[in-house]
Amino acid sequence: MKEITAPVQNDHSFGDFIRIRRMQLNLTQADVANGVGTTQGYISRLEAGTKEPTLTLSLKICDILGLDINEYAKRITGS
Fold first, then answer.
1. 28 membership: H or E segment, kind and range
2. Model-level pTM?
3. 3-state SS string over 47-75?
4. Structure confidence by residue, pLDDT tens digits, 2-23
5. Could you tell me the CA-to-CA distances from 25 to 8, 12, 41, 47, 65 in Å, in that order?
6. Which residues, 6 or more positions from 60, have their beta carbon under 8 angstroms from its beta carbon?
7. Over residues 67-76, mean pLDDT
């Protein structure tokens, strides 16, 4: 089954979305990884756009970074 990806407005991927916020909070990738129970390498791949997180992990990352996943969803759907 082919995966359908919604276009991202302003060229901001989920990786960009979390990287920008992580940097605003002066957190390292390791800080985020430890907070959500994954590895720094995995967070790095998410930010680089080479991996896509599960919904559960997306929610955990947004929670630790104080982000509203609904805001990100609005950005990618144009709603």
1. none
2. 0.78
3. HHCCCCCCHHHHHHHHHHHCCCHHHHHHH
4. 433 333 344 578 899 899 999 9
5. 23, 18, 19, 15, 8
6. 35, 36, 37
7. 78
Assess whether pLDDT exceeds 70 at residue 34: yes
Q: How many CB atoms lie within 10 A of CB 76?
A: 16
In this predicted model, what pLDDT tens digit does every residue of 37-71 receive, in sequence order? 999 999 999 999 999 999 899 999 999 999 888 87
| Residue 30 in tokens | 């390791």
CA distance 11 to 25: 22
Amino acid at 56: T
Distances (CA, A) of 43 to 9, 37, 48, 57: 22, 11, 9, 10
